[in-house]
């Protein structure tokens, strides 16, 4: 029988995290996580409730989130992220343990998974059509992504990392919590009151941050790989005119390469992969003013 994190009690989660670790699918990747930080236990229970458990020996990443020792445990306490007992980052404030876990998982993928082309983009799917939404911080891609996956028929493939299989030329679903910042948090909470969020953490390097639980259906369909049909570069600008403009493949190629974490590392393979994505896709730039109803309607028309 397949077991999920939701099948475990909080006591069981705490016990696993404090001993051999809890082993589960964080999106497409198998993670073994250890931690004695209560917020991590609560975050896993909420944000990864629908994630499937697996055997520790098959983990892609062995991660630990641990508090500082000594005086630091009491004076301005910090938390540390480690992969295979190595710490790639400076410690962060204790209250930021859950964002640190999410940022650390992104770092693991972007730095160790060069069998794929990894692009900084959200990815959603409906009616068999898959939209890649690349964007820089503040572009509104995560807000648009969150709005879509809370709407009928849309599936979350990724919020942060579009993972393109170089050999098979499809996108690997990587459904993990959707990261929202600052005013986007309240916008999505008001628009979709049934969505489930972690507590908002303030004063991080990215401002105020909260994470939204991915739907059970997105995780259940994780093995249904997709081929891209659209590449859309969203740009949120308050009081702007809503505008969807087709983009040339040449311009789209340059922007996709710029949004890729490992295009230069992959060299010729990176060039070929972006070319394959664009061969299958129609490309647009999309300016929107934050009216989510209009944005959802526009995306529905594209995939209808």
Give a written overview of the molecule.
By secondary structure, this protein is of the alpha+beta class. It contains 10 helices and 16 strands. Strands 6, 7, 8, 9, 10, 14, 15 and 16 form an 8-stranded mixed beta sheet that branches. Strands 1-2-3-4-5 form a 5-stranded mixed beta sheet. The longest helix has 16 residues, at 97-112. The radius of gyration is 19 Å and the shape is globular. 40% of the residues are buried.
Condensed summary:
Helix content is 32%, strand content 29%. The chain is built from 10 helices and 16 strands.
What is the beta-strand fraction? 25-35%
Which structural class matches the secondary elements? alpha+beta
Query: What number is the mean pLDDT?
Result: 94
Distance between the termini: 37 Å
Q: Order of helices and strands, N to C? A: HEEHEEEHEEHEEEEHEEHEEHHHEH
Rounded to an integer in angstroms, the radius of gyration calculated over CA atoms is: 19 Å
**Contiguous runs where pLDDT drops below 50 for at least 5 residues:** none
Q: Which range best describes the helical content: under 10%, 10-25%, 25-40%, 40-55%, 55-70% or over 70%?
A: 25-40%
Q: What is the global morphology?
A: globular
State the helix count: 10
Q: How many β-strand stretches?
A: 16
Largest sheet: 8 strands, mixed
């Amino acid at each position: 029988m397949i077991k999920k994190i939701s099948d475990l009690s909080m006591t069981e989660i705490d016990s696993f995290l404090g001993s051999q670790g809890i082993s589960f699918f964080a999106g497409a990747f198998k993670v073994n996580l250890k931690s004695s930080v209560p917020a991590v236990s609560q975050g896993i229970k909420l944000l990864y409730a629908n994630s499937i458990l697996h055997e520790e020996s098959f983990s892609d990443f062995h991660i630990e989130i641990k508090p500082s020792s000594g005086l630091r445990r009491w004076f301005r306490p910090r938390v540390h992220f480690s992969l295979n007992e190595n710490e790639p980052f400076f410690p962060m404030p204790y209250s930021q343990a859950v964002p640190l876990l999410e940022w650390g998982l992104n770092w693991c993928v972007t730095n160790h998974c060069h069998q794929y082309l990894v692009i900084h983009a959200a990815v959603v799917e409906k009616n068999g059509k898959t939209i890649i939404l690349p964007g820089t911080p503040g572009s509104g891609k995560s807000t648009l992504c969150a709005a879509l996956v809370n709407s009928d028929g849309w599936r979350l493939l990724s919020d942060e990392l579009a993972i393109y299989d170089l050999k098979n030329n499809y996108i690997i679903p990587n459904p993990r919590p959707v990261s929202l910042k600052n005013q986007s948090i309240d916008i999505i909470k008001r628009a979709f009151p049934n969505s489930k969020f972690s507590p908002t953490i303030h004063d991080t390097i990215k401002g105020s941050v909260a994470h939204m639980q991915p739907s059970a259906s997105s995780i259940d369909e994780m093995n249904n790989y997709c081929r891209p049909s659209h590449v859309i570069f969203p740009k949120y600008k308050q009081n702007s005119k809503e505008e969807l403009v087709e983009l040339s493949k040449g311009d789209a190629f340059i922007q996709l390469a710029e949004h890729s974490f490992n295009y230069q590392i992959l060299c010729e393979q990176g060039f070929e992969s972006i070319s394959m994505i664009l061969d299958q896709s129609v490309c647009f730039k999309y300016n929107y003013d934050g009216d989510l109803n209009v944005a959802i309607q526009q995306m529905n028309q594209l995939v209808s």
